[in-house]
């Protein structure tokens, strides 16, 4: 009996990506075994704390069969990359057809629990996976500053959106990304602050559709994207990628602001109530 081919993409299988349904988007996401869990490194910039706090261990990732499936897919990618990439392309084609049939917008996130430069692989037509689907929106998070630099300098495909991930050993790069006007994702320990590092904070748990942030939040300036801690209460102190909220007023917000009476802050025509952290 012929072995059944393992599917690469997950669609509507996690609580985060399905939140995009309210915006009429469907996300197909590729989950691999993070860092060196498979014997191959898919996260070249991962720190020790980043590995420990990774989403690989949260949600369905806690289950052994899920972990084994992700390890198998990762080994497939490294041991037979050509076959893997052709299967990936085929699954994306099917996903697009399914999305059209369901009258939703398709989008794809290839690095669900990895940080791989998929743009490097070229098909026979000379195009990478992104250029083979020019009308399809791809997006990812990355802690690889070299990749983020390419994105900031328009050296990655136009249909590929990147958000930079903050961790304990890349704060210099975080500042650089923010200075250049691009978003950074941060995991806060408890409450969602209004500001962090002088930038406004948006709730990244509302959806995973980072490429829509400018439109959804009606601005065209840098933001800190809050990602909730999904570590099953393992976090008891400030460690690694998880930081304390910071409600300090923004030094450079991109819009004029003024302090009113009490804790009211007026930014443009919008007034916010600020609760200062202890």
Task: Report helical residue fraction.
Answer: 10-25%
Give the beta-strand count.
13
Average pLDDT confidence is 78
Put simply, the count of helices is 6
Describe, in plain words, how this protein is organized in 3D.
With 278 residues, this protein is an alpha/beta fold. The protein is built from 6 helices and 13 strands. The chain has one domain. Helix content is 23%, strand content 20%. Strands 1, 2, 3, 4, 5, 6, 7, 8, 9 and 10 form a 10-stranded mixed β-sheet that branches. The chain has a 3-stranded antiparallel β-sheet with strand order 11-12-13, with no helix packed on it. Helix 2 (64-79) crosses helix 3 (81-101). The protein is globular and about 50 Å long.
Structure summary:
This protein is an alpha/beta fold and 278 residues long.
How are the SSEs ordered, and which strands pair?
Layout: E1 9-11, E2 25-30, H1 48-52, H2 64-79, H3 81-101, E3 105-109, E4 137-142, H4 145-152, E5 160-165, H5 171-179, E6 184-188, E7 195-196, E8 199-203, H6 213-216, E9 223-226, E10 242-243, E11 257-259, E12 264-267, E13 270-273
Parallel strand pairs: 2-3, 3-4, 4-5, 5-6, 6-9, 6-10, 8-9
Antiparallel strand pairs: 1-2, 7-8, 11-12, 12-13
Helix pairs in contact: 2-3
Main attributes of the structure:
alpha/beta; 13 strands; single chain; 278 residues
């Amino acid at each position: 009996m012929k072995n059944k081919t393992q599917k690469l993409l997950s669609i509507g299988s996690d609580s985060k990506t399905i939140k995009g349904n309210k915006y009429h988007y469907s996300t197909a996401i590729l989950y691999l075994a993070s860092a060196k869990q498979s014997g191959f490194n898919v996260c070249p910039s991962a720190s020790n704390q980043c590995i420990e706090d990774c989403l690989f261990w949260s949600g369905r990732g806690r289950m052994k069969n899920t972990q084994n499936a992700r390890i198998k897919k990762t080994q497939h990618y490294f041991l037979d990359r050509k076959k893997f990439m052709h299967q990936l392309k085929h699954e994306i084609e099917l996903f697009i057809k399914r999305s059209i049939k369901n009258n939703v917008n398709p989008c794809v996130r290839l690095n669900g629990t990895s940080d791989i430069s998929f743009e490097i692989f070229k098909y026979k037509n000379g195009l990478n996976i992104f250029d083979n689907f020019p009308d399809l929106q791809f997006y990812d998070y990355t802690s690889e500053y070299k990749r983020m630099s390419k994105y900031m300098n328009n050296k990655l495909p136009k249909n590929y959106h990147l958000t930079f991930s903050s961790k304990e050993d890349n704060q210099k790069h975080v500042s650089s990304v923010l200075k250049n006007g691009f978003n950074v994702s941060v995991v806060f320990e408890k409450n969602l602050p209004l500001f962090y590092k002088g930038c406004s904070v948006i709730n990244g748990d509302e959806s995973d559709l980072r490429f829509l942030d400018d439109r959804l939040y009606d601005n065209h300036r840098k933001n800190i994207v809050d990602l909730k801690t999904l570590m099953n209460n393992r976090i008891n102190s400030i460690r690694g990628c998880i930081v304390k909220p910071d409600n300090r007023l923004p030094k450079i917000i991109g819009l004029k602001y003024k302090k009113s009476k009490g804790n009211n802050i007026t930014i443009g025509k919008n007034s916010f109530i600020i609760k200062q952290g202890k």
